[in-house]
Amino acid sequence: MSRGEKKQARTVGPEERRARLALRHRLAGGARAATAEEVAGALVALHATDPATVFLAAGARLVDGPDPVAEVERALYGERTLTRMHGMRHTVFVVPSGLAAVVHSSTSTAAAARERASLLKQLAAGSDLDAAWLAETERLVLAELAQRGEATGAELGTAVPRLREQYVYGVGTAQEGPQSVSTRVLRVLGMEGRIARGRPQGSWTSSRFRWALTPAHEELPPAEARSELVRRWLAAYGPATETDLKWWTGWKVTDVRHALAALGAEPVALDDGTVGHLLPDDLDPVRPDAAGPWAALLPALDPTPMGWQARDWYLDPDHRPALFDRSGNIGPTVWWDGRIVGGWAQRPDGVIVHRFLTDVGAEAVRAVEAEAARLAEWVGEVRVTPRFRTPLERELAAGT
Fold first, then answer.
1. Using an 8 Å Cβ cutoff, are 230 and 245 in contact?
2. Which of 202, 314, 325, 355 has the highest CB neighbour number within 10 Å of its CB?
3. How far is residue 110 from each of residues 57, 114, 222, measured CA to CA in Å?
């Protein structure tokens, strides 16, 4: 190559991208994980807005043997090697505890500052409560949790009556109305990493969490934290575009570009004409047949289909209306060999049902049926209804 001649970026086709997905997201049969920590580490973060997603996403990727519910609860509530926290795109995630400081410094700190400013502005507009009042309320909440160990929002409201104070939300708007400060105060403390959601009341599908103090973690320089998060994300989701990464993180495009530059990320050509990025030590091609045929039933908001904004390389655009809600949240999906080929749901009687949206052949039908039986076995008597329901999931759940 002569001086000044640009190195031509290699092309990564959809077949290779699907093979990378299968192996790195622990979906191919031979790539499944032994522990919940391995699953979370492989995916960087598990969506946790819907509590059931964490367990269903892990269960789809764990080797046969361990009970997925017990395994995730061990990591989340027993050994606390997984942490539930606010993270990317103002969303709740479960992350490896060793990554919590990275997520906090790269993403949560700025979001928490905006949330605190918003709360103070609304308190000033709709009440006589001010910053001093808020600081004292937070001090009392933290002291109560230090004494109790953990408590529900209702228990904290009883112990700290200030949490039952009300303010007028949305003054001058169509949403104007009285609102308790409790939810907002706990949300700010959670986003700042001072408290965290612990074991819920009820089953693993419940969102009625207890709150607990969080251990202090290292404060990292934001740029350093963003580079580390991108490094881990590219290892799991690369090749991917700046647009994908901006969407997944919720950052400004300049922050995305600085992180990619700091890592020396290498550009590659994608089949749709866009430019993707890989880590400099991850340029070796992956054979399209490296994973072998595989099937999976993934839950609503699973990290894999929510990992990229551009999804045409694994999802037929014609199937989007059936599988997504109006806000862009994906429902339960059926996968075969790196593509979404249908959706699934649980009926009120507990039966797992699915529907193919394309012709997949007899081998795929058998493999998907086996995955449905595996899922039904460990879910048992628990009923799972996604928080964000999609047209196909509603139809299947209703038996239509």
1. yes
2. 314
3. 28, 6, 10
The domain segmentation of the chain, as residue ranges, is: 295-398
Is there a contact between 241 and 14 (Cβ–Cβ < 8 Å)? no
Q: From first to last of its 400 residues, what are the pLDDT tens digits of the chain?
A: 445 555 677 899 999 999 999 999 999 999 999 999 999 999 999 999 999 999 999 999 999 988 999 999 999 999 999 999 999 998 999 999 999 999 999 999 999 999 999 999 999 999 999 999 999 999 999 999 999 999 999 999 999 999 999 999 988 898 899 999 999 999 999 999 999 999 998 899 999 999 999 988 788 999 999 999 999 999 999 999 999 999 999 999 999 999 999 999 999 999 999 999 999 999 999 999 999 999 999 999 999 999 999 999 999 999 999 999 999 999 999 999 999 999 999 999 999 999 999 999 999 999 999 999 999 999 999 999 999 999 999 999 998 7
List Cα–Cα distances, 284 to 6, 20, 266, in angstroms: 19, 11, 12
Q: pTM value?
A: 0.94
